[in-house]
Amino acid sequence: MSIAKFLVRRTLQAVFVVWGVVTIMFGLRAVSPGDPATLMLGEGATAETIARVRAQEGLDEPIYVQYLDYVQGLLIGDFGYSWRSNREVEAMVIERIPATLELAIAATVVALVIAIPLGVVSATRRNEPADYGATLFSLLGISTPNFWLGLMLILLFGVWLGIFPTGRRPVGLVEAIWTLVAFGSAGDLLTWLQHITLPALTLGTYFTALITRLTRSGMVDELGKPYVTATRAKGLPAVLVRYKHVLRNTMIPILTVLGLQMGTLMGGAVITETVFNWPGLGLRLIDALDARDWPLMQGIIVFIAVAFVTINVFVDALYSSLDPRVNDE
Amino acid sequence: MREDVLRVEGLSTRFFTGEGQVNAVENVSFDVREGEVFGIVGESGSGKSVTGLSLVDLVGSPGEITDGELWYRDAELADEVREEFPDVVDGEYVDLRGVPESVRTSLRGTSLSMIFQDPESSFNPSLTVGEQIAEAVEVQQRASSRPRSTRARTDGEEYSLGSLVLSFALPSRRYVSEESRERAIELLELVGIPDPVERADEYPHEYSGGMLQRAMIAQALAGEPDVLVADEPTTALDVTIQAQVLDLLSELQAETGMTILLITHNLGVIARMCDRVGVMYGGEIVERGTLEDVFRDNVHPYTEGLLGSVPDLESVGGSLDPVPGNVPSLLDHEMEDRCYFADRCPKAMEACLERPPDTRVEADGDHVVKCVLTDLEYGESPPLPDDHFETEGADASDGGSNESADASDKSASPDGGDSR
């Protein structure tokens, strides 16, 4: 099967997934208690005002009409208005994407930079102190809850040592880079780095631990395969056997996990963003939930779904270029 | 007489497993002459493959070569290491066990190469066949362009992690050069792969088993080795393809003059290919000599059994099932201090309860047997009763995990002998 056909099939599947998410979200909203007009207007609103708003929002239409209206709106990019702030949902989602994206990428970078070397060392020095250390680290990393780790990092590095700020995002990466390029001032970039370090570590720890374990076990498996002996038998330098052959093959399955995790991170790490008051999608989602701001909630979740499946299609495409056997199946 | 290219003396390789120490190769000695095909034959689990891996220093953990000398003839290498390691040099021969690991590593592929039983699992599935063969070419290119001095060999890995990282940024710094890729295509053509230019860009899963075994042979030839260790090169192939691959090996040997150490359980392959042969049992070579010595004038009852020609053995009659019982457990604590074959041997005597020494059949000959029958006639020492091992030796013959595989091996042996 050609790569184009493969991608078309995966994209169609992705569309179905997103449609499912949209429908489930709509259904949840329909069955959840509380009248939206009352939520929008507050307790003191008169019955007349409520009726007017209901008519205006189409809330007195039959449910399937509301559903079709909603899906139709989504198709042309109209996510509706936030009930709470009366702003366009698209704008409210888009303005939060950079913060979430920055955090997701930073956490992934932390994870890859730490996890892969750690996994390789662990696998090539099996049952030596370095391996025990790496295994212990990944066990702790996987079992430590995010909110606790975040708070402890804040306490240690923010409060006691005062090295890193404890939260917020005073400047975005794009602006910081712009300042550096246009004015030659690295100050903003440093500020950004300072502010993202703790959230990225918090969010990245679980991820790091996971990838370390996967790298170790994958590499141990690969090292035991006959082709490794055969490759060594032809005299190839150990570095090439280890990285060009073994690590490359180990990375193929890890890539899938990486993609899934990136998708999850795109949804905004709700807990980490809350702990560090990091103005990403996760924090906005929590706010929307608190306010029962259904259009905003739906908008964010649909965005997350789209991001998730897009990344997965992308990973699948990459996968097929790394593992030649995928295309033939 | 041709000179020895490899002399193996007292080689022992052990595996230190959770169940105990496994004596996979036990005090094995043989010599391989330049340009010949030396065969090693035996059942699965007899230590053949580990012997092969020991020669190219690829016994992986938990295995380890614990004893023995591997004298390899290489005048140039001998000159290099003579000063630093005088004890391991004898004329043109160097004991590879006595030189640093980096020297052994530098010989791999270019002096001693190995091909394996299952070509499909012996290629990396995610790189093209051409690329993998080109890597082997590159190893050879770099080895021949580098000054062959001990210093260069022992200074450690010349291809570092840094070089690898750099090669991602600069394609010109890649390990495999364009010339090596072209040479890989030539090699594919040499081993009889049609459309080598296209096939070079295909992945192992796009090849058939026979084609892939040819490709593996091409890969081994890329290093222009003096000695090729071929570990069951045809076992995983269809019978018709087997013959083609063996013919190919013979042709290539005639062209290059390389020496082949052929490891197989198939006596037919041995008869067809080899000049001399060693029979392995229980981690030992129990009989070695020329084809004639082993096929016709054999002394060891195991060899006899393996050949399925047991004319003087009334108890078995005309049956072709040569050796009843299973290969012994090679676990150290289950191995008794006796001839390991005694419990299956139709001619077991009391003298067999001691370890038999390697004995030459003729004082100046090449036919060496590890059996008391070399010097004794059956009956000169009191025969052991049939149930001798059923009580005390029950454990020893029960162990091991290869029984089912052994059975199929044995059944393959007699017809192999007939096809000679």
Would you mind describing this structure in some detail?
The complex is a heterodimer of chains A (329) and B (420). Chain A is mostly helical and 329 residues long. Chain A contains 15 helices and no strands. Chain A has helices at 3-31, 36-41, 47-56, 63-75, 89-94, 97-124, 129-143, 146-160, 173-183, 187-223, 226-233, 238-266, 270-275, 281-291, 294-322. The mean pLDDT of chain A is 86. Chain B is globular. Chain B has 17 helices and 13 strands. The interface between A and B is medium-sized, with 26 and 44 residues.
CATH fold-level label of the domain at 97-279 in chain A: MetI-like fold
Runs of chain A in which pLDDT lies below 50 for 5 or more consecutive residues are: none
Shape of chain B: globular
Number of DSSP strands of chain B?
Answer: 13
Distance between the termini of chain B: 25 Å
How far do the termini of chain A sit from each other?
8 Å
Shape of chain A: globular
Structural class of chain A: mainly alpha
Radius of gyration of chain A: 24 Å
Order of helices and strands of chain B: EEEHEHEEHEHHHHHHHEHEHEEHHEEHHH
Number of helices of chain B: 17
Organism (chain B): Halorubrum alkaliphilum
Subunit structure (chain B): The complex is composed of two ATP-binding proteins (NikD and NikE), two transmembrane proteins (NikB and NikC) and a solute-binding protein (NikA).
GO molecular function (chain B): ABC-type nickel transporter activity; ATP binding; ATP hydrolysis activity
Pfam families (chain B): ABC_tran, oligo_HPY
